[in-house]
Specification:
By secondary structure, this protein is an alpha/beta fold. It is 23% helix and 26% strand. The protein folds into two domains: 183 residues, Ribonuclease Z/Hydroxyacylglutathione hydrolase-like (Metallo-beta-lactamase, Chain A, 4-Layer Sandwich); 129 residues, 3-Layer(aba) Sandwich (Rossmann fold), CATH 3.40.50. A hairpin with a 2-residue loop joins strand 9 and strand 10. It comes from Pseudooceanicola nanhaiensis.
């Protein structure tokens, strides 16, 4: 049986008929395998969800305890119908995983989103040899070569030293990026309190419960603090908060944003970002190519990103590839 009869796109998402399940479905389905807790991959309303324990916990935090009918923790080798399934670390966010699927004599690996840089809040990416490798392509252009995250944090600390009278507001998505920025700051020696927007509190608390040492975190809405008290302090918030009156409580704020997209200076200017921090939880161009070489699949299937550029590069290396044209996978919502 051909590989594209064993795993293929449907309007609901990527479907495996042998196991009768979808991976990261964009619409409710009877059985979903979920790679990680970002809202463009983990949606409520499925009949059953199989995911890592941490992803299940994160979905319950975001959607409520009744986000699915039944849930199962992904552990070891699991048999679903005629398919064998294993989860492997993806390095993207806490609990993120790649899904290895063996069915009809073919081994697939669905990566979801993944990162090859060291991530202090996620278990490191594990290359898994396979026949068909299904990769994201979020940053699949040669221009995207992400710098050392520690060097980006050094820029933030240098700005605080240069402008001690100003608050520094750092835009970071609620799951993964906010906690990674906090950990990078701690590793760089920032022991002072870090102030966080209310929308980050529950997920930061969960990371701390999971043993991620985030340190002293305080609410940025502390009414006992005067505006001047935030001078020289770091405040984390979803980027959408900067357009609201919420940001006006801080003294002459330096607006920063931690994202791989900050490598594109026009994006930073459009968002009014004074201090772009190129910190990404996705694979950049060199890491995409390196990963495909390591996994060495017979064919690479490409989704949600720059499919054409990566296909062209793989063709130059005599590697087979095809686009999946899956819809519904975008950036993590900012709210």
């Amino acid at each position: 049986m051909a590989a594209d009869d064993l795993l293929f796109p449907t309007p609901e998402g990527l479907y495996c008929p042998g196991g009768d399940f979808h991976v990261d479905p964009v619409r409710p389905v009877p059985r979903a395998l979920v790679t990680h807790g970002h809202a463009d991959h983990a949606r409520p309303g499925n009949g059953a969800v199989l995911a890592t324990r941490q992803t299940l916990d994160i979905m319950a935090i975001r959607y409520g305890a009744d986000f699915t009918g039944t849930r199962q923790v992904a552990e070891g080798t699991m048999t679903l119908g005629d398919a064998t399934v294993r989860f492997h670390p993806a390095g993207h966010v806490l609990g993120s995983a790649q899904v290895e699927i063996e069915t009809g004599g073919t081994r697939f690996v669905v990566t979801g989103d993944y990162c090859r840089h060291r991530n202090p809040v996620a278990e490191g990416f594990e290359p898994v040899p396979c026949d068909i490798f299904i990769t994201e392509a979020t940053f699949a252009l040669p221009v995207f070569r992400h710098p050392d995250p520690a060097a980006e944090i050094a820029k933030l600390l240098a700005s605080i030293e240069a402008f001690p009278e100003r608050a520094h507001l750092v835009g970071a998505y609620a799951l993964g990026k906010a906690q990674r920025v906090i950990m990078l700051l701690r590793e760089a020696g920032w022991d002072a309190p870090i102030y966080i927007h209310g929308s980050l509190e529950r997920l930061c608390r969960y990371h701390a419960e999971q043993g991620v040492p985030l340190g002293d975190l305080r609410p940025a809405t502390d009414d006992s603090m005067a505006k001047a008290d935030f001078a020289g302090q770091i405040i984390l918030a979803p980027p959408s908060a900067f357009a609201a009156t919420w940001a006006q409580r801080f003294p002459d704020p330096v607006i920063a944003f931690a994202s791989g997209w900050m490598q594109i200076r026009a994006r930073a200017r459009q968002r009014g970002v004074e201090l772009p921090l190129v910190i990404s939880d996705h694979a950049d161009w060199p890491d995409l190519l390196r990963t495909i070489e390591e996994v060495n699949p017979e064919e690479t299937w490409i989704t949600h990103g720059r499919e054409e550029a990566l296909m062209r590069q793989l063709a130059l290396g005599q590697r087979r590839s095809r686009p999946l044209h899956l819809i519904g996978f975008e950036e993590e919502p900012e709210g």
